[in-house]
Design goal:
Length: about 450
Amino acid sequence: MCGVFGVENNKDAANIVFQGLLSLQHRGQESAGIISSDTKNNITRVHRGMGNVSYVFKPEYLAGLNGDIAVGHVRYATGGKSSLENTQPFWFDCKHGRVILAHNGNIANDKQLAFMLQKTGAIFAHSSDSEHIMHMIEREKGDLETALPKALKKLNGAYALILLQGSKMIGVRDPHGIRSLVLGKLGKSYILTSETIAVELLGGKVIKELAPGEIITIQKGKIKKSYIFDKKDKAVCVFEQVYFSMPASRVQGQEVAVSRMAMGAQLARQMKGIKADIAMPVPDSGMFAALGFAKESGIDFEQGLVRNHYMGRSFIMPTQELREHLVKMKLFPIKTSIMGKKIVLVDDSLVRGTTSKKIVKLLKDCGAKEVHLALSAPKVISPCFYGIDTPTKKELMSTRMNEKDIAEFIGAESVTFIKINNMLAAVAGNEQNKKGKCGGYCAACFTGKYPTGLKV
């Protein structure tokens, strides 16, 4: 999962992108980059680096990114190693001139595409699927806007793309709409970005989420073209609601905080009759679900864990070793809130289980009498090939253990996962239909049914 942000027709483009990336920092903390263009003088400027946005973009670097159009990217690697060479945006000098690309998502058939491209003479500068997209575009006939939809139809996966060509900014959302792309307006400039909050924090106005399969071309403050190049059944990633998006962002018109509170309320109904003293969130991702749980159940809400906000998000660290180290460093217990209490611990999801185990141990070491883990996502039983780092079933605890075994492994008295229909009702008011499709959402990680037809 990554974050993208582009703005056109603005003399302060790079600074606006910098601010936009700050509001998307939760989507990727490994690396960040901005490329800006001075379209009048045909000058491109770039700065990329490893680390978070504030670390990478010191004032002196930002001051050197003069231009009237720019795009930025924050990265959490799901394809290609975590390195400076894979830090986006990328630029390409090709038959279409200089094209700049930022990509959020993951191409599931990338290995096949890369093999085909190499057989026909392609040389890669990066180990990222994002570069392969540009190679696919270049091999099609016609100008960039003609070649783009032809190439995209050969991709199987999830993508939200921002491309810059001269003074043009082009946005693309994959045909299922798995990855989000938002159109906004700031004065006389248009913005394309991953979340609504990135527009609103700048004082801009959100116009819409691009439709699944939509390509939009913007130039000098005007929308030149907008059309659907390929539309399939909508399958927006439900993990945006569960974990990735900021609570103040909106997904399909609903605030993420509202969805998470509704998930918590659904969990409380599932766990009706549970005897507990407090409902406690794992901060920050479990916060709103815990509030919803407490309100529905009548159990007191208590913050017994405080997050160190100078640490990153453990789920999106690139290795298990880093994830485990980060858990130790980022959560501080409030012992008086924990000691002697029966606790319902509310978190967003359980993927590998190691984080939950360490948190339960932390609570027990502080004198918790009981810990009952309540999760606002169902069991993760299948890997994601669309941009979340769960590449094999071997990593997924729920494929190997039932609830009782999981509870024993993590040291809790019980573990409860939200039922998938209850989660979907919370985010969209839709129940899973007879065909196994999930009311406009991709829930492949919970069902094993992939919207793009992948077989695992």
